[in-house]
């Protein structure tokens, strides 16, 4: 037999013979005559510990777990309500923003129309004033033209009389005036 097998068999024999050796040494756990009392006290101790756990410790643990579940559920409900309130506030804010944009658009449109009307009125006023000034200027120009043309006829007669006087020696101013008038009438369309 190998050494390893020998060691294993010695260890097994020692373990099998341990209760008998323990009985001889005075260990009561292994004394078969004392097993019923040990089992009785085992059951009594287990029952007492079970009763203590069932009546004192476990209800407190259950209450703690239940209160934590209620607290977590209450927190979740509060968070859901806050979320719903935030969404409702966001919707209200969006509505208010859209309404404000509409009002601003209307005010801008009204201001633009008022500015356009005011500008149009000013343009009409300036146009009317300029039209009146143009009519007055044309009237003045017509009067000055008439005066200038009248002065030209007189000047033409004087120049023609002076030129004829130098060329011919003498001239009849009335006859020169008629000739200038006829020449002016012939030049007009």
User: Largest sheet, described in full?
Assistant: none
How far from one another are the termini? 162 Å
Whole-angstrom Rg: 67 Å
**Model regions low in confidence, pLDDT < 50 over at least 5 residues:** none
Share of residues in helices: over 70%
Overall geometry: rod-shaped
Q: What's the helix-strand series? A: HHHH
Helix and strand content put the structural class at mainly alpha
Beta content comes to under 5%
User: What's the helix count?
Assistant: 4
What is the typical, i.e. mean, pLDDT? 83
By DSSP, the count of extended strands is: 0
Task: Describe it.
With about 190 residues, the chain is mostly helical. Helix content is about 90%, strand content about 0%. It is built from four helices and no strands. Helix 3 (about 35-165) packs antiparallel against helix 4 (about 175-185). The termini are far apart. The relative contact order is 0.02.
Record keyword descriptors for this entry.
single chain; 189 residues; mainly alpha
Topology:
Elements: H1 3-16, H2 18-25, H3 35-167, H4 173-187
Helix pairs in contact: 3-4
């Amino acid at each position: 037999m190998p050494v390893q097998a020998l060691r294993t068999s010695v260890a097994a024999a020692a373990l099998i013979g341990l209760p008998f050796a323990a009985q001889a040494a005075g260990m009561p756990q292994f004394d078969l005559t004392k097993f019923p009392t040990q089992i009785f006290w085992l059951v009594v101790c287990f029952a007492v510990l079970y009763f203590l756990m069932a009546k004192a410790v476990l209800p407190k643990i259950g209450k703690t777990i239940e209160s934590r579940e209620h607290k977590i559920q209450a927190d979740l409900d509060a968070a859901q309500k806050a979320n719903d309130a935030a969404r409702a506030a966001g919707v209200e804010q969006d509505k208010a923003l859209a309404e404000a944009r509409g009002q601003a658009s209307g005010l801008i449109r009204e201001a633009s129309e008022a500015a356009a009307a005011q500008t149009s009125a000013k343009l009409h006023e300036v146009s009317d004033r300029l039209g009146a000034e143009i009519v007055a200027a044309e009237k003045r120009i017509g009067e000055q033209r008439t005066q200038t043309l009248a002065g030209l006829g007189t000047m033409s007669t004087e120049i023609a009389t002076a030129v004829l006087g130098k060329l011919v020696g003498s001239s009849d101013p009335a006859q020169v005036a008629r000739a200038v008038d006829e020449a002016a009438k012939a030049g007009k369309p």
